[in-house]
Specification:
The protein is mainly α and about 250 residues long. The chain is about 55% helix and about 5% strand. It folds into three domains: about 1-45, no CATH class; about 50-70 and about 80-155, no CATH class; about 180-245.
Length: about 250
Amino acid sequence: MQAKSANIMVPAERQQHHGGKLVIRLDHNHRREALEKLDPCTAFLYAPYTVSALVAGLALLAYYGDVLHVRGAGGAAGSSEHNAAAGLWAAVLVFLGYSVVQGPRTSMVRPHPAVWRLVHGAAVVYVLLLVWLLFQTAHDARQFLKHLDPSLGVEVVHRDYGSDCALWHPTSGAPDWSNVLSALDVFVLAHSVGWWGKALLIRNTTLLWAYSIGFELMEATFAHMLPNFNECWWDSWLLDVAVCNS
């Protein structure tokens, strides 16, 4: 017996029933066949171009790296900061180019598999950056970020959310909601939109709550490093977790 999926006949040996649903296993050859069947006019876009990408990448590096220019003992033209920034961006772009061509294959083929390989490569670069920053001081990390954007590298004035956590007036004892109202800023909207976005991606209530509670615990752990993480108990567990993430 054969199943028909997206106008492609699937042999019975690739069909499995799990939880009352038909699950179709696609190997590499069948996946390529599916792409060609679904995109007969654009099949050339799904062909590998490893050599072409390598030649184009080397040509761009030779051009922007100015390798044909005869340098003296002083090295490349330009300041050391400019050269460091250019080299950093070039290394990132070379890795992203490699990810697009040789990255891991996924089951997502729309709009193109290369898009998701690029996303995977960007995520790896971000994780490596976070690991590197873990071993730097705050000052050195800010100076490094200047290579990515010259406007960075200066200390940001953070708001201290945990300096006054009183919910009632100290003399009269009447409820005082001024501290709660002052905490309703753009981060409340960020919490709500972030919860909605994570719900679309994770689609598991238990994992969502674990992520939310874990994030608040992380803020409490690193409050000594970033004053912005110093929040009142009702801000963290009532406003953020119980209200924004529900």
